């Protein structure tokens, strides 16, 4: 018996060693492959780096140790499943990512000869961003910036954005300490974009110039050249803008030909080149170099015909092609006008007229004073739609924002000018810090007589001067994130507002409104779509209120562990008029595990309809 | 040389009776499926047949190559030859794998001329090292456990594991366990080419490294098998 048992153990051990050997050999091969190839080529459906994806199994089985402590530290351990299954998995994951970010940021210092220092900084950047996003969604951190977008019916819709200021530090380290790394161009681009978003235009341009000069063959250099083109064009430096656009075109073509050496450029790259040719032609028209403009338009026209055929097979290309051909036609008509003026020998001072692009300018103020550093954007209808879903704090929103072309940052006087806005209708959006000197700020609705006009920016036939965007101090709320329950209620608190006689408090749920339908009569459900109020108190005297837990319960109470709520505090004066209101992105909360269990305990077995139970609870 | 081939064939062939019938049925089924649905047959499907099915056939054929002596308890005859033992094992193994490759080549040729043109040479080349690797594993398991059926089961288990690992790599979020010791590296390369993603698919350009690695595995297992047979003989 004993011998049989020993034999079984020996066999099991040999099998396990065989499995380990299989894993180690595979890991060694993957490591060798990663070290000898350009990993930037390999894209994955998962938002993780190549090493993290390839060594996921080894990380789960903790078999990264054969390749040294640096590699083990770089790959790290997978997040705990128990934490992910908790009541607030976003926070658990955010904490895990912050820890990983800290480990990866110090890896080059702890292991100076490590082969993975560059990848560690690159992954640390990604983890820092993801941690900031998840910390915001999980209520661990408040948003540092807020995006305000005008609504069609007037007023502003606010979205909180995560604090991404830590990530560019890692990107800068990568670009400065490892300039020969294949990730250095992308790191430098991220630094430039971060400087631009922070309103430091000169530092951003310096970074873009460095990228275009030091990495002329990198794909990111195209974006750098395009950014410098936009900046030069906004300042009216047409020659400089043309030079940058030419450089961007040359880089785009070079990168595309390297990527597709033996075939004609694929449709998407050809669209990029077509766009560059159109912009260059537009600049040549402005500089009155009509022959050069004509040549470029011929090339662009030929490319458009080629892409038209590809767009018939690929529906995703159709909108891009439609937008580009519209621009192509516009530049052709400008060329026709310019040539007509030239033939008629009519003296036209300055560049030929460009009938359909005009500047849009305005001012952003806080308490009547200039508000510098606020980024003002004009969103086209598709872009506005992307930013409209309530509570969309995700990478989709950030991704959509980074694609917006029409933008400018307010200067010292709070003034902004967005140059060369094509004729059309736009929605105004302002990206500003969530707090100024510790005080939360929100844009104020314009006066009623210009409410409708301010909702949509119409560029028709001349420059547009928009009404000033006024920011005011918001109600400073103190409750945020995961909340515990006390005596069957959640306590919300805020700082008292001078001049406020009472407060109107409402608890809403934008992100999961469909989970709260049963509580309403069917006639009330359409209203819930725009303003999903779960609970309301109209005349609260103290700067605090207890919200009954049962009022927050969704149709399926188990879902409460995933629900995210916001509360709105409106300070009212003695006449019942609004004095101030809270900033919704700073008023998010979720139920903690304890509150969730308390909510489950409140649900009586075999109770009647949910609505009856809710009516029994009276607001404070 | 031809005499040796004929001699080993005479020894190996009778052991392939039942496995030959099974393999024949399997190949007929596969051919019938492709002829019924010719549009589903492509280079990738042919590569899948070459890299997945041919090694399985080789495993079935190679498992019983020493049965002529082993079954009758006359394994000391293996040592009673002028040539070294590893020669005998190598010849028998080589013949069985060559037979498997011949079956695969015949099936692919039928599909090549009957359904759609495929790169026959490359497909057969890509089938060699997986067939050798799985064949030697089957033989080693047969010798180790003293039972041909267990030999087939071990080889089948490894084949199933390889198929599952390959499937994991096909997922949108690819999970890469061991891209080196995989039998279907050429199929994955063809899939990447078909998606026009050759440059952006990891390991597709180093598909031949897997073949070399499998050859090394086959050699290592072969050395182990020969030693085991020697000990088997000496143990008597």
Model description:
The complex is a heterodimer of chains A (620) and B (236). By secondary structure, chain A is an alpha+beta fold. In chain A, helix 8 (167-177) packs across helix 9, helix 13 packs antiparallel against helix 14 and helix 14 runs antiparallel to helix 15. Chain A starts with a helix and ends with a helix. Chain B is mostly helical. Chain B is 73% helix and 0% strand. Chain B is built from nine helices and no strands. The longest helix of chain B has 30 residues, at 85-114. Chain A binds chain B through residues 22-23, 25-26, 29-30, 33, 37, 41-46, 50, 53-54, 56-57, 259, and chain B through 172-181, 199-203, 206, 209, 213.
Q: Largest sheet of chain A, if any?
A: 7 strands, mixed
Mean pLDDT of chain A: 84
Please count the beta strands of chain A (DSSP E, at least 2 residues each): 22
Amount of helix of chain A: 40-55%
Largest interface: A-B, 20 and 18 residues
Shape estimate of chain A: flat
Beta-strand portion of chain B reads under 5%
Query: Oligomer, anyone?
Result: heterodimer
What are the segments of chain B in which pLDDT stays under 50 over at least 5 consecutive residues?
none
C-alpha end-to-end distance of chain A: 74 Å
Structure class of chain B: mainly alpha
Can you count the beta strands of chain B? 0
Q: Level of helix content of chain B?
A: over 70%
Number of helices of chain B: 9
Q: How much of the sequence of chain A is in beta strands?
A: 15-25%
Total DSSP helices of chain A: 21
Average predicted confidence as pLDDT of chain B: 86
SSE order of chain B in H/E notation?
A: HHHHHHHHH
Q: What's the end-to-end separation of chain B, in Å?
A: 32 Å
Radius of gyration of chain B: 18 Å
Largest sheet of chain B: none
């Amino acid at each position: 018996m004993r011998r049989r048992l020993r034999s079984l153990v020996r066999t099991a051990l040999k099998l396990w060693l065989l499995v380990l050997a299989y894993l180690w050999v595979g890991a060694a091969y993957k490591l060798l492959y990663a070290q000898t190839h350009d990993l930037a080529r390999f894209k994955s459906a998962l938002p993780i780096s190549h090493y993290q994806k390839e060594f996921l199994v080894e990380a789960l089985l903790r078999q990264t140790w054969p390749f040294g402590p640096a590699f083990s530290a770089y790959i790290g351990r997978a997040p705990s499943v128990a934490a992910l299954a908790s009541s607030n998995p976003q926070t658990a994951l955010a904490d895990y990512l912050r820890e990983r970010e800290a480990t990866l940021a110090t890896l080059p210092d702890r292991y100076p000869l490590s082969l993975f220092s560059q990848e560690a900084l690159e992954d640390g950047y990604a983890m820092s961003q993801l941690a900031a996003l998840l910390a915001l969604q999980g209520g661990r951190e408040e948003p540092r910036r807020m995006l305000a977008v005008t609504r069609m019916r007037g007023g502003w819709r606010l979205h909180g954005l995560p604090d991404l200021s830590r990530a560019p530090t890692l990107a800068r380290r990568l670009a400065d300490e490892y300039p020969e790394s294949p990730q250095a161009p992308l790191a430098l681009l991220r630094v430039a974009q971060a400087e631009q978003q922070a309103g430091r235009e000169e530092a951003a341009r310096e970074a873009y110039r460095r990228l275009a000069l030091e990495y002329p063959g990198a794909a990111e250099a195209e974006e750098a050249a395009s950014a410098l083109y936009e900046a030069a064009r906004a300042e009216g430096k047409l020659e400089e803008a043309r030079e940058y656009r030419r450089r961007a075109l040359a880089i785009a073509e070079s990168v595309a030909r390297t990527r597709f050496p033996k075939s004609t450029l694929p449709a998407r790259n050809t669209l990029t080149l077509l766009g560059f040719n159109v912009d260059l032609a537009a600049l040549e028209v402005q500089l009155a170099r009509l022959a050069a403009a004509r040549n470029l338009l011929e090339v662009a026209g030929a490319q458009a015909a080629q892409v038209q055929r590809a767009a018939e097979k690929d529906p995703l290309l159709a909108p891009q092609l439609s937008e580009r051909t519209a621009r192509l036609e516009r530049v052709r008509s400008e060329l026709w006008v310019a040539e007509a003026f030239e033939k008629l020998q009519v003296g036209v001072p300055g560049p030929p007229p460009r009938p359909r692009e005009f500047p849009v300018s305005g001012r952003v103020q806080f308490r009547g004073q200039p508000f510098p550093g606020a980024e003002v954007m004009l969103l086209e209808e598709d872009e506005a739609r992307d930013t409209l879903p309530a509570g969309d704090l995700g990478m989709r929103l950030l991704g959509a924002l980074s694609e917006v072309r029409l933008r400018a940052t307010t200067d010292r006087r709070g003034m902004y000018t967005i140059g060369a806005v094509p004729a059309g209708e736009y929605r105004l959006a302002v990206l500003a810090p969530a707090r100024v000197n510790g005080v939360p700020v929100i844009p104020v609705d314009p006066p009623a007589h210009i409410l409708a006009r301010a909702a949509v920016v119409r560029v028709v036939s001349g420059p547009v001067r928009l009404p000033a965007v006024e920011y005011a101090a918001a109600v400073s709320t103190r409750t945020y994130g995961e909340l515990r329950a006390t005596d069957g209620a959640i306590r919300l608190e805020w700082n008292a507002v001078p001049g406020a006689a009472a407060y109107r408090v409402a608890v809403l749920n934008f992100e999961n409104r469909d989970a709260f339908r049963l509580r309403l009569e069917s006639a009330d459900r359409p209203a819930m779509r725009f303003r999903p109020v779960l609970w309301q108190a109209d005349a609260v005297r103290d700067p605090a209120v207890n919200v009954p837990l049962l009022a927050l319960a969704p149709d399926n109470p188990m879902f409460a562990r995933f629900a995210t709520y916001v509360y709105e505090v409106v300070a009212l004066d003695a006449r019942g008029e609004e004095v101030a209101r809270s900033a919704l992105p700073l008023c998010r909360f979720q139920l903690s595990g304890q509150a969730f269990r308390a909510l489950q305990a409140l649900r009586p077995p075999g109770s009647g309809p949910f609505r009856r139970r809710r009516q029994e609870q009276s607001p404070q | 040389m031809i005499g040796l081939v004929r001699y080993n064939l005479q020894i190996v062939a009778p052991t392939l009776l039942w496995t030959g019938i099974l393999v024949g049925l399997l190949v007929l089924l596969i051919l019938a499926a492709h002829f019924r649905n010719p549009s589903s047959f492509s280079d990738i499907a042919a590569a899948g047949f070459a890299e997945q099915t041919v090694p399985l056939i080789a495993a079935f054929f190679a498992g019983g190559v020493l049965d002529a002596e082993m079954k009758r308890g006359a394994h000391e005859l293996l040592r009673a030859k002028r040539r070294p033992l590893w020669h005998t094992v190598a010849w028998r193994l080589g013949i069985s794998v060559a037979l498997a490759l011949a079956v695969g080549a015949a099936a692919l040729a039928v599909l090549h001329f009957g359904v759609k043109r495929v790169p026959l040479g490359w497909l057969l080349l890509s089938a060699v090292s997986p067939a050798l690797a799985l064949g030697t594993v089957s033989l080693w398991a047969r010798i180790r456990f003293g039972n041909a059926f267990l030999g087939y089961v071990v080889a089948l288990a490894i084949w199933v594991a390889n198929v599952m690992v390959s499937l994991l790599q096909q997922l949108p979020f690819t999970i890469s366990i061991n891209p080196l010791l995989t039998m279907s590296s050429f199929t994955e390369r063809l899939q990447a080419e078909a998606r026009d993603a050759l440059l952006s698919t990891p390991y597709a350009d180093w598909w031949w490294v897997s073949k070399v690695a499998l050859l090394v595995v086959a050699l290592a297992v072969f050395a182990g098998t020969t030693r085991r047979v020697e000990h088997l003989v000496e143990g008597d």
